[in-house]
């Protein structure tokens, strides 16, 4: 209890004159512009868990797409190489998209961006499950990858803001673990789904997954 009370004590400030004649404010502890450091533990852990879940689902989606290839190829006249373009477009946007979308969170905030992009990803699964041809599948994967590209970087920023840098190592370790766990569980679980149900369910089943963080 005493430690929690200390987090809400007045912030010590040090005023330093800059060379340009302005005044710089240096905070010794718990910057008021970053109030998450003063949050109670339950709120920090809940926020971190949601950030890790969003990251896990994004990586899960990236690795699960290949499970639909066999069933999709049987229903549509495409080769496996052509089908892989649906995975390529998603992964390409994961790398390119943050250059454009990541700075948006600095203007509008991280929560609105994560909520909107997660909702877009969830809705696009409907287009994938009902895709009549490879073109519609590749296009929806392209848009979905654009929406998913900020989830990893933004979630990492959320976790970095929740703990001071001297105790940030363990939470960031769990964040990285969520990515590698998703890359392993995605193909295993979705290949089982594709074999026992059909390729459409590789996408249908991820709709409730992505609705859970919302």
UniProtKB/TrEMBL annotation:
InterPro entries: MFS, MFS_dom, MFS_trans_sf. It holds the Pfam family MFS_1. It comes from the Eukaryota. Its main location: membrane. It is a multi-pass membrane protein. SUPFAM superfamilies: MFS general substrate transporter (SSF103473). Keywords: Membrane, Transmembrane, Transmembrane helix. The keyword Electron transport does not apply. PROSITE patterns: MFS. GO terms for cellular component: plasma membrane. It is found in: Membrane. Residues 47-214 form the Major facilitator superfamily (MFS) profile domain. The keyword Transmembrane applies. The chain crosses the membrane at residues 45-62, 82-102, 114-135. One of its GO terms (molecular function) is transmembrane transporter activity. PANTHER family: MAJOR FACILITATOR SUPERFAMILY, MAJOR FACILITATOR SUPERFAMILY (MFS) PROFILE DOMAIN-CONTAINING PROTEIN-RELATED. This is SPOSA6832_01272-mRNA-1:cds. It comes from Sporidiobolus salmonicolor (Yeast-like fungus). The gene is SPOSA6832_01272.
């Amino acid at each position: 209890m005493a430690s929690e009370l200390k987090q809400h004590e007045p912030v010590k400030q040090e005023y330093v004159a800059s060379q340009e004649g302005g005044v710089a404010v240096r905070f010794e502890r718990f910057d008021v512009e970053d109030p998450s450091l003063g949050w109670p533990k339950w709120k920090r852990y809940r926020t971190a868990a949601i950030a890790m879940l969003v990251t896990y689902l994004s990586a899960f989606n990236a690795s699960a797409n290949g499970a639909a290839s066999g069933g999709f190829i049987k229903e549509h006249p495409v080769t496996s190489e052509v089908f892989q373009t649906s995975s390529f477009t998603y992964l390409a946007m994961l790398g390119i998209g943050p250059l454009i979308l990541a700075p948006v969170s600095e203007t509008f905030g991280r929560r609105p961006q994560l909520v909107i992009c997660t909702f877009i990803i969830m809705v696009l699964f409907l287009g994938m499950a009902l895709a009549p041809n490879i073109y519609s599948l590749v296009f929806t994967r392209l848009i979905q990858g654009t929406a998913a590209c900020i989830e990893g970087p933004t979630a990492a920023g959320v976790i970095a803001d929740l703990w001071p840098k001297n105790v940030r190592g363990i939470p960031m370790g769990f964040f990285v673990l969520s990515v590698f766990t998703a890359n392993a569980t995605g193909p295993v679980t979705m290949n089982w789904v594709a074999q026992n149900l059909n390729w459409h369910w590789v996408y249908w089943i991820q709709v409730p997954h992505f609705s859970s963080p919302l």
